[in-house]
Each structure stands twice: as C-alpha cells, then as structure tokens.
Amino acid sequence: MEGADLYLGWRTALLGLATLQILLLAVALLVETGNRVANRTLAALLAVLAGLLIPYAIGFAGFYDAFRWLTFAPFAIPLAVGPLLYGYAASLADGRLPPRWRAHLAPPVLQLAWFALCFLLPADLKWDWYTGGHRTFVAPLFQAMEIVSLAAYAFALRGVLRRQRTRLADQRSDDDRFSARWLGRLQAAILIGLVTQTGFWLWSLITGGIDFFQETGLYLALAALGLYLGVAGWRHGALPVPLPAPLPPVVAEPPTSSPPPDWAVVATDVDHRVREAGWWREPDLTLPRLSRLLGTNTGRLSRALNLGLGVNFSTFVNGLRAEGVAGALRADPDADLLDLAFDMGFASKASFNRAFKSRFGMAPSQYRRSVSDHDFADPEAKLRRVAL
C-alpha cells in the first residue's frame, strides 16, 4: 500500500551493488578506444541487464508497495537481450553490426512502448490492469517470447562463432589472440542464462505461479551473468577487429582452355620460400601480408595451402613455428620453452602447445625429454600432420 515502509535487505543490497557495477562497466566500455562498435553494443546490453535487475532491487526493498505509481515503469526490456548479444558478437568479429540489424530491435522497441503506455495509465486503472489482464495474458506471452528470442539468438551466435573461427584460421597466424574463444564463452553464458530462465518458467507453470521472492535465484544468476559479461567484455575491449567484414561471394569466372594449376607444385614452392625467408616468425603474420611477400594474391595462396598441402593458413604457419621450436630444442634441450615459442612467433602459450602437439603428436615438454633419448626418432622426417 502507499506509504509502506522501505526495507534494505540482503537481496536489495546484492542486486543493487551488482546493478551499479554493471552500469560502471558499461561506462568503461563506452570510453574504450578499441572496437568501438562492439564495445558500444556491449555497453547497451549491460544497460539492459541492469534494467532487468532494477525492479527486483527496488522491489525487495518495498518500493512498489510504497509507490504504486512505479508499476509498469519501463526499466526491464528483456526482449532486447538477444538482439544486443547477437549484434555484439557480429560486431566483435566484423567491426560492424550485422545487415538489417535494426529490424531485430523491433520486438524490444514494441515491448518498451507497451510498458511506457501502461505506465502512463491512471494509478488505479494501472494497478487493476497489472494484476488482471496483463498478469493473466500479456506477461506469459512476453515470457514465452523472451525464451524463444534467447534460444534463436543463441543459435545465430553459433553461426557467427563457426564463421569467425574459420575465417581467422584461414587468414591469421595469431588467431588465438582474437575473439573466437571469447565468443565461445559468450555463447556458453547465453545458454546458461537460457537454461536458468527456462527452468524458472517451467517451475512457475507447474506450480501455478511463483512469487517475487522465489525468483531471487533467477535474478542473482542474471546479476552474475551481467558482471561476467561486463568484466570479460571490458578485458577484450581493446582487441582490434581481426578481419574486415566478409565480402560478397565472387562470381565464378567462365572456364578457360588453360589447364588448372598443379596446386601441389605451387604449395611446395610456397612452403620452400616461406621456410627459407623465415617469414613465419612474424607474430602477426596474415594471409594478405604473406601474399604480398610472395608476390601473389590471397586467393591463389589460400588455394595452394588448402588444395596443395591440405591445411589452412594458421595450421601452415604455426606448424612451421612448431618445427622451429623443435629444431631449437634439438640444439639445446635445456632452453626455456616459452622463450622459444615467442621467439618463433607464437602469440600465446595455448596456441604454442596446441600447434606443437598437432605437428608432432606430443606436448613440447615431452618432446624435450625425448630428444635426450638415444632411440629418438625425429618427427621432422614424417609427413606434416593435417590439423584443420
């Protein structure tokens, strides 16, 4: 009722503190100078997540009992979460929002307009509508739409992640530095949120409805998710866009009478020249950069590696780096592994360990122990492993 006492309990304290921290992280992302499109989109997402927490942070304190006019205040717009997550993932990969992205914002804009119109109703009518028709018909519809939206955008994010991993492996040798792993964690976070929300929704359906306090776990989980996205997104905020936005497909040229290149021969020449010149030691070597060094174009070099050697660009370059580390270990088994890895061009310990094991079938430390064995058989003599 109007004039009810306010109460600052542990629920309000936790959710209020989380909301403040999420908003501060959103501000930090707005001033980040890296991938500005992605950072601003994530800042908008964090603001939406903070808005989802506000009704519960103030509700547990008794604000809605003390101030009934706050009913329908348009703090929470959950239908905006999915589109903003998708926009953030796409802009993190391409440096721009996906095509026709504004159309994805239509449902959350309509949801915002609905709450704003209901908020403007006279106080008595507003409360009757909130406890009557809205709670019976509109709120369940919104909840179903929110779950479907999150599921659809989680699936769409899977496509963004798959495309990004493929493009990075095809064009960069330092692909581990960029956003594919973070996008994978982002997708996992969305799925956790989706499962949590669906679980509470099913609980409400089975039991005939759950009250404000029974939803505490859902909103504490939402607060944790918002803090994770904010902190991890801020840590990745300085990453540049690793690749330009994908170009439209190239129309195939009409067939000519000249025979196609022997890609195995072309690839052998590329492999020899790259080894001799030592270009593979450049930490940020890319497909366009290597193409210029070889005096060719990216399409021809990519086909040579894929068709001639059966590997993508990242596997090719990091395989040469792994061979460089192996050669250095044979010369000096006591050398520091990480120093060797960075000297050979690896960007991280994780990428070094993965590439080395892919190339030689064993971890770098195991290889170092093996070179002291009198019966050691050098894997260099074997055909390069394929690890697409």
UniProtKB/TrEMBL annotation:
Keywords: DNA-binding, Membrane, Transcription, Transcription regulation, Transmembrane, Transmembrane helix. The chain crosses the membrane at residues 12-31, 43-63, 69-93, 105-125, 137-161, 182-204. PROSITE patterns: HTH_ARAC_FAMILY_1, HTH_ARAC_FAMILY_2. InterPro entries: Homeodomain-like_sf, HTH_AraC, HTH_AraC-typ_CS, Tscrpt_reg_AraC-type_HTH. SMART domains: HTH_ARAC. GO terms for molecular function: DNA-binding transcription factor activity; sequence-specific DNA binding. Residues 282-370 form the HTH araC/xylS-type domain. PANTHER family: ARAC-FAMILY TRANSCRIPTIONAL REGULATOR (PTHR43280), HTH-TYPE TRANSCRIPTIONAL ACTIVATOR RHAS (PTHR43280:SF28). This is AraC-like DNA-binding protein. It comes from Brevundimonas alba.
